[in-house]
Design a protein that fits this description.
With 210 residues, the chain is an alpha/beta fold. It has one domain (49-209): Rossmann fold. It contains six helices and seven strands, in the order ααβαβαβαβαβββ. It has helices at residues 12-38, 51-58, 78-86, 100-109, 123-126, 149-162, and strands at 69-72, 93-97, 114-117, 137-140, 168-173, 187-191, 203-209. It has a seven-stranded mixed sheet with strand order 3-2-1-4-5-7-6, sandwiched between helices. Helix 3 (78-86) links the parallel strand 1 and strand 2. The relative contact order is 0.14.
Length: 210
């Protein structure tokens, strides 16, 4: 047998595949860390969202709806990938990202999605002339706990204006307290169990306007 040949039954091809799958994740972690060091208040985490956290967020989105799914602060696309894995058509995705480097990465990875380079905290301006109909979900990876409460409340008000009645605003947080108060008038709130396997542990909060 040639010296570099792969023996029958060898797991070397599988190992090569695993290494190939791990590399984008490692690259994304480096990108996140570099961006966090440069602008820590513009990035919600030091690392991309873990797979379990991303899947938990995606489960609150109706994959069969025809409305747009707006993702705020997608970064390198960890939650975006979970939405697509859940069955959300890539063409339904509207990705609002502030960082131009992440925007270029998202356009390359998700060419059928609409990537909007803009500030999610001025959401009405960022979504102007983007949505043709009310969205079926807004999914946020924004660093809300670093923002004043008035900024958070403005964001969710703007999100509800973009959403269809009863559609979810989905937000994760590492904080023990909810990122937006649970007692907003006319708004129902639910939360996932704490996701201890995420680093750091996180919880998903879901808000719906009644």
């Amino acid at each position: 047998m040639p010296r570099n040949a792969v023996p029958p039954g060898s797991d070397m091809p599988m190992q090569s595949t695993v290494r190939a799958l791990k590399k984008p994740r490692l690259d994304d972690e480096v990108r996140f860390l570099r961006t966090w060091i440069e602008k820590p208040l513009h990035v919600g985490a030091v690392m991309p969202s873990g797979r379990l956290l991303a899947r938990t967020m995606a489960q609150y989105v109706d994959a069969n709806s025809s409305g747009a799914v707006v993702e705020l602060g997608p970064g390198t696309g960890a939650i975006t990938a979970a939405l697509i894995e859940r069955g959300v058509d890539q063409k339904r995705l509207v990705l609002v990202e502030y960082n131009p480097g992440f925007c270029a990465l998202l356009r390359d990875r998700y060419p059928q999605a609409k990537v909007v380079q803009g500030d999610a905290f001025t959401l009405r301006d960022s979504l102007r002339n983007v949505l043709g109909a009310p969205a079926s979900a807004v999914v946020s990876g924004l660093p809300l706990v670093t923002k004043p409460m008035q900024t958070r409340l403005k964001l969710i008000r703007d999100a509800f204006q973009a959403l269809a009645p009863g559609a979810p605003f989905v937000q994760f947080t590492y904080s023990v307290a909810p990122p937006i108060p649970k007692s907003l008038p006319g708004v129902s709130t639910e939360a996932s169990e704490r996701i201890w396997m995420n680093l750091p542990p996180a919880r998903v909060w879901v808000y719906r306007k009644r």
